Amino acid sequence: MNLKGRLLIASALWGWLLAPTSAMALDVTIGYIHWVPDQGPVLSNVTPEPEDAGLRGAELGIADNNATGRFLDQNYTLESVIANDADGAMAALDGMLESGVDLLVTRVPADTLQAMAKQAGDRALLFNAGARDDGLRIRECQPNVLHTIPSYAMLTDALGQWLSMRRWKEVFLITGPTDQDKAWADAFRRSSKRFGLDIIADKPWTFDSDLRRTASKELPVFTQAGDYDAVVVADVRGDFGEYVPFNTWLPRPVVGTQGMGPEAWHRVVEAWGAAQLQNRFRELAGREMNSEDYAAWAAIRSIGTSVTTLSDAGHSEIHDHLFSGDFQLAAFKGRKLTYRPWNGQLRQPIPLVHPQGLVATPPLEGFLHPETELDTLGYDKPESDCQIH
Amino acid sequence: MKQAFRIAALAAAIGFSGPALAGLAYVSNEKDNTLSVIDTDTHEVVDTIEVGARPRGILLSKDYTKLYICASDDDTVQVLDLATRKIIDTLPSGEDPEQFALHPNNKHLYIANEDDAIVTVVDVTNKDVLAQIDVGVEPEGMAVSPDGKWAVNTSETSSMLHWINTETFEIEKNTVVGQRPRHVEFTKDSKIAWASAEIGGTVHIFDVETIEEIKQIDFQIRGVPQDRVQPVGIELTSDGKYAFVALGPSNHVAVVDAQTYEVLDYLLVGARVWQLDLDKDEKFLYTTNGVSGDVSVIDVEDMKVIKSIKVGRYPWGVVIDPTS
Fold first, then answer.
1. Predicted-complex ipTM score
2. Where is the signal peptide (chain A) (predicted)?
């Protein structure tokens, strides 16, 4: 038990001043395990990814939990480990389980997450705040794993809805060489079928020259095809994609992982009180909040919201509460967020953003669903083999 | 607009000599840094006043001579003289003031500082900061009971109401409500408090004497997904009959029986309805619709929306001067 649920004698100060509604003091320790494999060198290295993406979001989640918890005599602490490899991440998990930490947020690759989930078994509840792989949501679901980061399919469905709404239905798809690029492109191909898009050209990126010198020469030729409405780029790590806009054969917008595209979170999101979350994050981290930060924050807030409601921090009680229908997360996306019972994915609107502005926030009006419009994004229940609840 | 202003000025001039005095509504436009002034007889905008950055909460002094404005991005509360329509003063407010409430003593202003998780109490007569009270994450709604005993603050991310004793400036009780509580409204007799929870989709009714929740109201609008039904502003008629609840992106205002707490009707207004206020005779209800950038006018007797008035971008707060 990470949370010892120790019955402390309510501290005279807080107990008297703030009159907590619960006499039971709770100490809640949440673990955060971070391992991101080296992405390799990239051509577009102008704005490097922050190395602490995820960790800082987790820290903000803890701060937000404590700001609420102090009125209820609940105290949250974060135990974080930045591992250098998969073994390091596994060792961190063992260490945390050993010391009784049973609520964990991870930013690790899918295979590491799977190993962790098996290792933890029913001893802990894991929140995936890093791996977007669809396989984790449709085949390899684990009852002890929840996903706060959106899957590739959720992201590309958001883009697909928007392209369909704009009637920019004929697209030119460029896919990078990494497994992540291929997973993103596979998800987009599925989205294109769902939303009636036509991929008129589907080309892998194979060039290895430095585009900073030659983009204007190479890309126009590379994107020569019949007519298309938009170019879709699948370049997850940001290798060549930044050089595609304005260098296409036809004067067409570039969308996907570069240009304008779907994100779990981005600094341009400001509606629904998001401006306050962005301000808090900026003050804490000295940089802008990104998707990984948001996913880690949402995981820790899910725990905090549950503990507030339950006045209990046992991992199985929290797990049951998250799927009970009573749980709802206020997470600055304009509507309450809940977890999909069949695969543990956090339902959420997906902002479509360009570096300086918000374009739209799917699910878009008109894409209907019998349960919730949020389930028009990503694999729906009948499309998933998972049935963890 | 100039034309309209002249007509209004004329109407006002006539008004001074007779009983047909035009009522005025003030609307804060969050993304235009202006206030729109609306004549509540003609339902026309008669003036636009430039104010500080990101004006949100607005309220009238108890003698109706001044309007206080939370200029959130200027980290200040501005004081507008209603006779001259000029900013005559600013008050220390703490960072990012969003909503506030004035004690019936016309002196103590309770300000929710959204970014700092603090409620600041300022004496408006000498600008003294009387207290800064730690509250939950993103304090938002502020209300002072008409009898002056309680100041209630809602903290959005903590999903709590903080009940502040106005004698001691200390929190006496914290009550957990639905997710993202936005607004609190007391009945005239100070016995009942209404609190809206935006993401929870609920309104919570509290017995003030015991500070216990006695009722929760849920809303269902045909054809509107449940997660778009997001209660924000609440307005109560003084006869105790009705409550009006602004339901955000569902674009509806709920009409609630204030005795039985039964929802009587849903009225379609503009997009993302935020706040509302009744005019002095309680004949008309004005609502601010953030996304469509307009104000809807509801005829209270017929319970019908009779007009929408274009104002600035992202209209946030609305107050109607009952003496004008």
1. 0.75
2. 1-25
